[in-house]
Amino acid sequence: MKKYTITDxxxxxxxxxxxxxxxxxxxxVTIGPKxxxxxxxxxxxxxxxxxxxxxxxxxxGSPGTGKDEATxxxxxxxxxxxxxYRRADATEIIREGGSRAWRNNNPGNIVSGSFAIEHGxxxxxxxxxxxxxxxxGLLAVMSLLRAPSYRNLxxxxxxxxxxxxxxxHTAHYVDFVAKRTGIDTKTVLSSLTDADLSNxxxxxxxxxxxxxxxQYSADKPRASISARAAGPASSAAxxxxxxxxxxxxxxxxxxxxxxxxxxxxxxxxxxNYIRVxxxxxxxxxxxGDEVHWxxxxxxxxLERAGYRGTGHPGARSFFWNKDRHFIELEKPQYxxxxxxxxxxxxxxxxxxxxxxxxxxxxxxxTEVELxxxxxxxxxxxxxxxxxxxKSTTVKRKLVAYxxxxxx
Length: 407
Description:
Number of domains: 2
Shape: elongated
Helix content: 25-40%
Number of helices: 13
Number of strands: 16
């Protein structure tokens, strides 16, 4: 896979460049700023549909080799000590055991958040970001050390900020990095070359702990989860804060960032919802950010919170519940998924046709409030009647309340 490096990018040019690269299928990572300029490293998207090189443990492409990062589009940590990486073709690799840094491809144990996402993170566990490869994770560490909060600090000051004494044996940390890199502890980070900074990042990786565990292909289907398991709401409902936190964060963005754009513009954030939700689906062939994207938004929030989505851009995919990743509830609960179906209703399997999905936040006997995407062309809350009719003909009805199964 070819790798392209774009240098001398100004802050004004950066966001447009990153958006353009992502829309074209690239996986860009930002380094810098250095002297107020950025470097963008981007992997060319695969053209032959291949999965990449083999792995000595499983015969599958490894998320840690640096060769497959463009094909890993999402990751989640459904249970402690396990991370699942998903490729663009929906196949998956599982990492278990080992150190947290290794499982997450996060050599610096960078906390999840906007910085991690902007520098290539594809998921998170309960606290830390998950990167598609070790290489991308190391580049994120370098970018963090080039950030305004670090670049004017000495090596000692930087490590005291990175690994504060309240949580670490910081003096040992400083001594280890200095001896391993040969960099004086009083050296200011902004004076370091890229090679020096790379050595600092690798030293951080060493002291943070990089211990491989078990890695294998997720080729065995999960055990089926009953759609009517006993007491599902009491066990699944407390986890709603995980995905609702993601949804609420998206809702809080400025309208221009969470809404469809007038043609010929395409909102890259909405396109990213679709890419994470259903990597195989190309929205640009079917309307760009104007394609129905309510299901993609729900799937995006679930995936980012570490839960399985449906892998499909249609609202009906939640109704199908093919892999039994959702538990059907008798009554709504905060954070559950409300599934609406549009007429006609003759096909009991709902193989085709439209609908709408969103997260339920409030409800009455006749209506539910949904926090969702593609609601008046944006991410917002709206009230929906449980049954909508024109004259005496039902046009839309609520057909399911679903709660993601506990991972």
